[in-house]
Every structure is written in structure tokens, then in C-alpha cells.
Amino acid sequence: MAGTARERARELATRLTELSRAYYVEDDPQASDAEYDRLFRELEALESEDPRLVTPDSPTQRVGAPPAEAFDSVDHALPMLSLANCFDDDELAEFDRRAREGAGRDVIVYCAEPKFDGTALNLRYEDGVLVRATTRGDGTTGEDITANARTIRNLPLCLASDNPPAVIEIRGEVVLPRSRFDALNARLEAADQKPFVNPRNAASGSLRQLDSKITAQRPLAFMGYGIGAVEGAALDGGLYAQLGQLAEWGIVVSPYVERVEGLAGARAYYDAMAERRAGLDIEIDGVVFKADEAYVRDELGFVARAPRWAIARKFPAEETTTTLDAVDFQVGRTGALTPVAKLTPVFVGGVTVSNATLHNMDEIARKDIRVGDRVIVRRAGDVIPEVKAVAERGENSRPIELPSACPVCGSAVERIAGEAVARCTGGLVCAAQRREALKHFASRDALDIEGLGDRQIEAFVSEGLLQTPADIFRLHTHRDALVAREGYGEKSVANLLASIESAKDTTLARFIFALGIREVGQTMARDLARHFARLDALRDEAGAYLEREAEARAAATTKADYERRMSAEGLQIVPGVGARVAHCIAEFFAEQRNREVIDDLLAEGVHWPVVDVEDKAQPLSGQTVVLTGTLTELTREAAGARLEALGARVTSSVSKKTDFVVAGDKAGSKKEKAEKLGVRVRSEADLLTLLAEHEAG
Ligand code: IVH
User: Fold this and answer.
1) What is the predicted pLDDT for the residue at 418?
2) Burial class (CB within 10 angstroms; exposed 0-12, middle 13-18, buried 19+) of 175
């Protein structure tokens, strides 16, 4: 009986090994997860009945052994060397020159490989079975971490060979793929554990767990790059060929290994990998060039602890540590405040960095970064440098505080609950936002000032002619300066001033939209104008809102209760205005300087026709209309404007409250919906008749 159990156990182990190799090494799954689990459990059952069936290469050994007290020290059969580094082209040329001289060759052929950024591992296979895995340690003595190594899924517990060497040591790097790194950190944070700073630390930290069950849960991978001690086999002397042999045995080797010729070949390889770097799932910190031929390597030999026949050409480091000296807040074009770290200058990612982004206050809190800390700074490629994490708490460190006033204009800074970004509320007066505010103010859908486009605004602001929107209406006082400007003349200035003058005659909806209140788009502005009819009414309501908000917050028992209290109030009665929009409107009018600019604009003569909201005389007031499909005689925008001029409300979605839908060519879902809801559908011809009828009267 024991014989059959043993046979079955072996059969299962072989099958599971094949399946796992297909999955992890070849990326070509041969069975479902359920099938794998079923076989796995069968093997587990056999082994637990008869522990003598457990072999060191059994797939059940991957799940982790009982925790160790400490790791045993192991002397390496062959020392694990390090590599000489070089950081530029000249140093690489110097290496190549010495290698050619030393080996007496005109051209050296290199085995070119990525330099993986992980932690080194030596795997000892005896008769094809993994018997021991050791860390590099000091190069002579390492730690026995066999139980941990067994949990690495893409690492074969036995070599795929009928005739393996009696002994072979395979060396490589244990890495944690970038794609798994974030998920691992998220898991750690959820379990209240400290996240890893980078994939390399995650790899080495995970590999050196005393409890291999923890290592088993980390998505580590092994990338083979070389061979150590060998007994009982004659291997090809070429390194490139040796890596091919490793791959045949089931060791994962980088797909980017190449044989390159001489310095030119090495340089081209470096450039190609530097280009590829950012897109790789496994982080690399350089490339390695090794003389491919055994003869050349023998001629060159070693110096100290590194071979003379190999060199690592490092990429510029993407991360380093430095001190966080202070934090400034930068105000962006949209008023967003970004905390910027002022750093003791460091060389990173190929440049000297003294400023780096801290993203926002939430990130600062999450990473618990304080002024005075030693921090890890990252600059990858052309990406803006960022402070990634605290490396070491500074002795006299102090918390980073969000300023209550905008550092540019002094307006109040607001931070909406649940949002990471803090913003300056001085949209109209803040110098940081001025250009954008002015461009928006003069744009087509706002005050529509012809001749005052983005380019002119940029120039006028730079020359100090414009600061706030009200200055636009005082440009006439700079008439001479304008005429003297390059590319301008009497005529163009006269045109510009005339269009500014006529822009004073506007509508309340356009004016509200032009103010650039956050969250208030064109439709919202129109709805506000229609609801309040007078600017003062809107202002009063906005003024009362913040107070109400504070009261409701104090009185409400639950979030739902708070929302119920607020939804019945002023601003939120307007269709489409929710808590967020209402809050933005209120904040905008609460800022004294915004109110001053509005008064200034009114004083300069900006005005609009006052419509009486109660005025039912408008022929289409109270009617809600939806336009859909392609109109042929006029654009949808024009049709909408004319309908609105007659008092209709033009919206974009059809509901039971819609009075009628105008369907042009190729009208689709909206027309169907109207038909389904029994809403009247009219043609473009009907619309033209309707407009003609009412506009005449
Ligand atoms: S060869 C004698 N090849 O870099 C050559 N090393 O500074 C010894 N590394 O500890 C190493 N990728 O862990 C070699 N393709 C590669 C490598 C590589 C990463 C690591 C290795 C070693 C360190 C050497």
C-alpha cells in the first residue's frame, strides 16, 4: 500500500510542479485554479498521513515552514561577488579599454543584462533538487533562508532536467514586481502595518521574515542572472549560453538579455534599456555588462571583491534622502494650494533638486511628514520630484500646517470636507489665478469681449495693465500705451475699446458665469439668474448660507439629518444646486475682495436687463424644452438662446416635466424617451413657426 501512496504522491508532485511552472514561469496556465487546488489538497492529505512522503521539492513546501528563531549562517561554496559601478559613458569607455588591453582583444563581446533592483539569492540544487537558498550576506557567509525561498512561486523546487548536474548553484535577484507593490502596501496599511518605501525594500524585507508563512503571502519573483559552484557537469563557457541553459531548466531569466559587441554595442544597449526602464514591471537600476567568453574572463580575473570582466552601468538614482527644511504653499491657476517641500539640495534622477511636491495635506498626514525630517525624495524620468516618505524623524521636527490665508493674495483658504485639495477663495483678486480668471471673464460664453483673447490678456497682465476684471473697463485710460504697443494701432485699439464698452451690456446669467465661481458652469449660472433675478438676492442668500451651514452642523444629529436641514434652504432650492455647489457659491461671496470686485464692475457700468421673475408675460415662461438631433436652419445653441429669450427653460435631459422636445435629424434616445413618456415631440419646422409667432409679438 505504501508503494502506491508514494507513487501517487510523486505523480501529484510532478503534475503540480508542471502546472505551477506553466503558470508562473511560462505565463501559460494549463489548468484552472480549482483543479490545481484539488490536486494540491490530495497531495497534502497523503503527506500528512505519512510524513515520510514529504520531499524537499514537494509543492506543499511552498506554503511556508514553522517560524525560525534565527537564520543559520552558511559559508558560500564560491564567494558572491559584487560589481564595479560606473555612472557615465567615459567610465564605461575606460572599463572597456582596460578589458581589451587585459584580454588582448580588439573587441570584447558582452553579455548585457538588466541590473535588477532587489536582493541577491543563491540557490543550491543537488541532483536537480533545491536543497538550500542563501542570501548574499557579506559575500563569503550568508543566511540560510531556504524555507522562505521555497515560497517564491516562479522558482523551481526541482530543475526541469532528466540529467541535472550533481551540484549547481544558481544566482539571481529576488524582486517584487511594481504591479504588486501598491496592492501589498495597501494590504499592510489596512492591517495597520508599516508600508514599504520601495519594491526593493519590500523584496528584501519579505525574504528575511523568520516566519515563512508571511513570505509566502508576498508576491516575490526570482530572476536568474548567473551560476556559482558546479559539480558533475560541463557547462558552455559563454555567459549568454549559460543563461539560455538556466531558462531550459525552468529558471526565469530576463527577456532583455543580449549579446552586444564592444563599447558601441554596450552604449546602444544602455540607451535602449534606459528608454524601456519606466515601463518595466520589475525595477532595474542599471545594466550589467559581462565579458561573454570564458577565455576573456580568465585573462581578466578579479580585483578585491569584484570581477575585472564585468561592470554595472548605473542609471541615475531615482531616489535619495535629504532634509526637509521648510514647506511653501504654491497657488495654482485654479486656486489649488500645493504644499512644496524646500529641501537641502540633493542630486537625484540626474539633476539637483531643491523643491519637491508634497501633493496635498492628506498625503502629508498619511505619510506623517514634518519639517525637519530626513525624507526620501524621488525623481523618476521627467516626472516632478516628490517627497515619498520620511526616512528618519528630525530631532526638532514640527508639523506642517495649512495656512488659513492664501500666501499670494491673503484671501481665505477653504478645504471642502472630504476633498484633498485646499483652495484660495479669492478667485477674482488672487494674482496666481488672475490670468485664468480674466481669460474666463472675457471669454465667449461669459462677457464675450471681442479682441480680448487669451494672448492679449497674458500680455496686458504682464505689462501691469490688468489686474482684476474691473480693470478691463478702465483700459481706455491707457489708450496711449495701448496704441504704442507693437502690432496695435489707432484702429485696433478703437475696436477693442468699443467691444469692451458694448460688453458692459450683458445678462445676469452671463455675469454670474463670468465670475468663475467654482462648480458654477453656464447652465448653473442661468438657473441661478432665473431663480434670483437680481444679483443682490443671490448675494444675500449666499451670505446667509454659511451661517445656516454652521447652525445645521451644530443641530443635526446625523449626516442625513444635516442634509435634510440644508436641502430645504435658500441656495439649494435652485434646481441642480447641491451642497457642494451651494458651499462654493457661499464661499465666493463670503470673500470680501470678491464682493469689492463685483461692486467695482457695477461702478464701471456693467449692467443687465432686470427681469421680473414673476413676470408671466413671457410667452414661454414656465416651459421646459429639450433640443435634440441636428437642426438644419439654425444651430442648437441659437435655437436654445431664442427659446430662452422667450422665457423657456432649455435643459439637456428629458423627463416627465419636459413640456416638449424639438427633434432634428438623427434624433436618438432623447426622442425615444420623450415618446415613451408621452412628451410632445416637435419638428424643426414647428420650432421655427413657434419662434416666428412669439418673437414678432
Ligand atoms: S552579476 C560577478 N548580474 O547586483 C557578478 N548582478 O553589485 C556578480 N544584480 O549583489 C553579480 N542584477 O545581486 C549580476 N544581471 C545581474 C544583476 C546583478 C542585479 C545585483 C546582484 C549583486 C549586485 C552587484
Assistant:
1) 73
2) buried
Residues 448, 539: one domain? Answer: yes
If DSSP codes are grouped into helix, strand and coil, which group holds residue 77?
Answer: coil
Range of the domain at 344: 318-425
Question: Do both 496 and 558 map to the same domain?
Answer: yes
Distance 440 CA to ligand 1 centre (A): 57
Q: What torsion do the CA atoms of 462, 465, 468, 473 make, to the nearest 10 degrees?
A: -150
How many helices (H) and strands (E) in the chain? 26, 26
Same domain, 584 and 600: yes
Distance, C-alpha 298 to centroid of its chain: 48
- Our measurement of the distance from residue 1's CA atom to the centroid of its chain's CA atoms, rounded to an integer in Å, reads 59
pTM beyond cutoff 0.85: no
**Ligand 1 site, residue 173, Cβ cutoff 6 A:** yes
Amino acid 617: pLDDT: 60
165 and 257: one domain?
yes
Residue 370: Cβ within 10 Å count: 18
* Cβ 329 under 6 angstroms from ligand 1: no
Minimal CA–CA distance to 283: which of 366, 378, 419? 378
Kindly list the averaged pLDDT for each block of 10 residues, start to end, along the chain of length 697.
81 91 80 85 91 87 76 93 91 97 97 96 96 93 94 94 96 95 91 87 92 93 97 94 97 97 97 92 95 97 90 89 95 89 91 93 93 92 86 92 93 83 87 89 94 91 91 94 85 94 95 93 89 88 83 84 74 79 90 91 93 63 86 86 84 84 89 90 91 77
Residue 169 forms part of a structural domain = yes
Q: Is the CB of 283 under 6 A from ligand 1?
A: no
DSSP symbol at 53: G
Cα separation, 159 vs 155, in Å, equals 9
Active-site residue, 115 included: yes
- Residues 6 or more apart whose Cβ sits within 8 Å of residue 458: 435
